[in-house]
Automatic annotation (TrEMBL):
Domain V-type proton ATPase subunit S1/VOA1 transmembrane intervals: 220-259
Entry's Gene Ontology cellular component terms: endoplasmic reticulum membrane
N-terminal signal peptide: 1-18
Name of the protein in its database record: Protein BIG1
Species for this entry: Claviceps arundinis
Keyword Kinase: no
Amino acid sequence: MRAYTVTGALTLMSTAVAFSDSSPWVLLSTSKIDQSLSVNQIQTSPEAIAFTKNFLSECPTDEYLIVTQPGVHAADFWNRDGCAMLHLCEAAKDARVKGKYTVAEVVGDVTASGFVQHIKASCNKNGKVAKIIERPLESLSGDRSQALGTNDASIALDLGMVSSDSYTILFYATPREPLYDSEFIEPLHMDVRRDIDNAPSLHRANETERDTRPLFEKYQFFTPGIFMGIIVALVLLSILGAGIRGLASLEVSYGAFDKDMGPAAQKKQQ
């Protein structure tokens, strides 16, 4: 985290880490806010909206300025020259401001907050007529710090109109506008595909000559290895045949197998 030394109600935003779907939240009022500056600097959008509406439910002031800046993060408030939104920072240091509620990172969608309707209903309930100025700013593009300074200059007049001693300023960020999605990509692809389909096909003539040789001339069936195997097989078969014929030529009677050739028979012969 990068730390900045600043003064005013936006000091706690100096150490913020910008999440992809988070935004700063600034509530300044000449009426006291029952909330210390040591508030948790990472809150969900329902928490920040509920706290703000709870404060506004009493219609605490006569004038209200609601400023929305799409796609801004807490880190965008500070550059090498200091505060990027000088008029807002000066408003936070105004001596008339008695209540400050700032959150560096409010995570979640805040588009359906409905603060204008809530203020009107609350003031009507309390028998008051409130002056409400709603100022949506342009999206940040190019140099974010410079664009933020330009937007700050556009709300300088609104801040100057808050000349009474009873006013409330609410600043928060809305989601960035979605990127433009071209609707002509698919027709373009269809046109390209149609052009490819209509392109003339190029068929090359088959110039390979047909081989009309006989089968045994085209392919070699009897290789040297096959001949060597056949010769070895014939030699082995001839040896086997000679052995079988030798065994068959032996003339041994069956009685020879019944003759007693033990030690007792040998003694009798002696």
